[in-house]
Amino acid sequence: MPKDTKNYEKYFLPPSLSDAKRRGREEIQVHYDFNIPEDMQSFGKDRYYLIQTYGCQMNEHDTETIMGLLEQMGYKPTEDRRQADVILLNTCAVRENAEDKVFGELGHLKHLKAEKPSLVLGVCGCMSQEEAVVNRILQKHPFVDLIFGTHNIHRLPVLLREAFFSKEMVIEVWSKEGDIVENLPKKRQGIKAWVNIMYGCDKFCTYCIVPYTRGKERSRRPEDVLAEVRDLARQGFQEIMLLGQNVNAYGKDFEDIEYRFGDLMNDVSKIDIPRVRFTTSHPRDFDDHLIEVLAKKGNLVEQIHLPVQSGSNQILKKMSRKYTRELYLELVSKIKAAIPDVGLTTDIIVGFPGETEEDFQETLSLVQEVRFDSAFTFIYSPREGTPAADMADDVPIDVKKDRLYRLNDALAQLSKESNDRIIGQALEVLVEGESKNNPEVLAGRTRTNKLVHFKGPKELIGRTVPVNIVDAQTWYVKGEWVPAAAVK
Ligand code: 5AD
Ligand code: SF4
C-alpha cells in the first residue's frame, strides 16, 4: 500500500486484509475542516440517488452520512431505480448470506446499467474492505463504476466526480483506518438518532471480520460527542443510540485524558434528552463504574445488549472472547443486583467449529439462567482471512439449523415469559408511529425496548406517554393509554 494514502490520487487502491490486520501506533488525527470541493457543491443538481443498506446500525448510520454528503451536493433521494443517477450498495461482510444478497443485487443492476450508461453504480461498506470481494467485482461485475470503503466515506464527492468522468472502475479502499473526520453532514429522520462514539474493534474474536473491515479502535473526543448529543436534543430528537463495535472500550485509546465509557454516559445523562441507549458492548470491558452510572437511570434506560456468543467455555476460548461462562454470569448478576428491572439482550452463534451437543446444551442453559428478553441468533459463517476460517467447519448444516431452531424456541418462550411479567404495570412508552399492520393502533417502546401496541390519538407520536400493559404476546405486548396512570 502506498505510504501516503490520503493524497493518493490514482483512485485504484484495492484493499489488503493482511495490512488491515496490523495494528500500528500511528496517531489518529481529528479533522474539523471538512468541506465539499467547490466544483462538486452543485454536481447533483437535478439528479437523484438511491442507497441500499445491509447489515448493522453502524452501516445504517454511515448511510445517513452518505445521504448527507449527496444532498449537500444537490442530489435528491428517490425510491425508483430507473430515476436514480447514483445507486450505492452499502454492504455488510459479517456473514456469507449478507454478501450473497449483494452479489445477487449486482446481477439485477447490470441490466439497469446497460439501459442507462450514465448511471453511477457504487459498492461501499464492509464488503469493499475485503480483497476477495473487490477481485470478484473486478472480474465478474466490471460494470460497477465505484468501490470505496468504510474509512474514506468523506472522499465520496471527489470519488463520485472521478467515477462520473472515468471509463475505468474507480476503487479507493484504505486498508488502514483513516483519521476521524468531524462535521460530516448527516441526514437523520424520525425521533431517534444514532451517534458514533468510536470506530473499529481491537478484539479480534476468531470468527469476526469486523476488526479487518473497520480498523483499529478510535474514540471520538468526548467534547465532540457531547456537542452532537446536545445539538440533537435541541433539534427535538427523543432517543439517542450511542454506537460503536465495542462501546465500552471507549476512551482506552486516549493518551492525554482518563475518560472512559462510564464517564461519557455520566455526562450524557446530564443532557436533556428523554432516552439514551448504546450498542454494542463486550462483557470483558464492562466495568463497575459503568454499572454504577447506569444504575442511576434517568435518561439512561435499563436495557443492555451484551453479546455472549456461546455458553461453553471450550467454544468461548476458541472464539477468543476473553471471558468464561462463569465471568459472564457473574457480570450479569452484578448488573441485575444494581438494576433489578434491567432487560438483557444478546447475540449467539451456533455451529462454531468443534461445537458439540454438550457445548450447545451449555448455551441453552446459560440462556435459561440469564433469562434474556431477546437475542440475535446466527449460524456460524466462515469469513476468509479470520483465524476461525482455518478451523475445520465440522458441524453439519442440518445440525446447525436444528440448534438454531431449538435456541430460537427457547428464546421465544423466555420473551413471552418476560412480556407476561409486565402485565398490569403502567410503563413509559415512547410512541414511534402507527403499527405496521393496523394504522388504528400505535406502536411504541418501553424503556427496556419492548414493543407495545395500543390505541390512542396520532398526536401522541413522538411523545413519551404512560401505557398500562394488559396482554402479552411472544414478541410484543398490548396496552391501554391511561394518561392519568402513575408511571412506574
Ligand atoms: N458467523 C456468524 N455470526 C457472526 N457474527 C459475527 N461474525 C459472525 C460469523 N462469522 C455475529 C456475532 C456478532 C453479530 C453482530 O454477528 O454474534 O455479535
Ligand atoms: Fe467482532 Fe468480537 Fe469486535 Fe464484536 S468484539 S466486532 S464480535 S471482533
Automatic annotation (TrEMBL):
Residues 420-483 form the TRAM domain. Its EC number is 2.8.4.3. Its cofactor is [4Fe-4S] cluster. Its main location: cytoplasm. Catalyzes the methylthiolation of N6-(dimethylallyl)adenosine (i(6)A), leading to the formation of 2-methylthio-N6-(dimethylallyl)adenosine (ms(2)i(6)A) at position 37 in tRNAs that read codons beginning with uridine. Keywords: 4Fe-4S, Cytoplasm, Iron, Iron-sulfur, Metal-binding, S-adenosyl-L-methionine, Transferase, tRNA processing. PANTHER family: CDK5 REGULATORY SUBUNIT-ASSOCIATED PROTEIN 1 (PTHR43020), MITOCHONDRIAL TRNA METHYLTHIOTRANSFERASE CDK5RAP1 (PTHR43020:SF2). Binds 2 [4Fe-4S] clusters. One cluster is coordinated with 3 cysteines and an exchangeable S-adenosyl-L-methionine. This is tRNA-2-methylthio-N(6)-dimethylallyladenosine synthase. GO terms for molecular function: 4 iron, 4 sulfur cluster binding; metal ion binding; tRNA-2-methylthio-N(6)-dimethylallyladenosine(37) synthase activity. It comes from the Bacteria. The keyword 4Fe-4S applies. It comes from Paenibacillus xerothermodurans. It catalyses: N(6)-dimethylallyladenosine(37) in tRNA + (sulfur carrier)-SH + AH2 + 2 S-adenosyl-L-methionine = 2-methylsulfanyl-N(6)-dimethylallyladenosine(37) in tRNA + (sulfur carrier)-H + 5'-deoxyadenosine + L-methionine + A + S-adenosyl-L-homocysteine + 2 H(+). Residues 187-417 form the Radical SAM core domain. [4Fe-4S] cluster 1 binds at residues 56, 92, 126. The keyword tRNA-binding does not apply. Monomer. Signal peptide: none annotated.
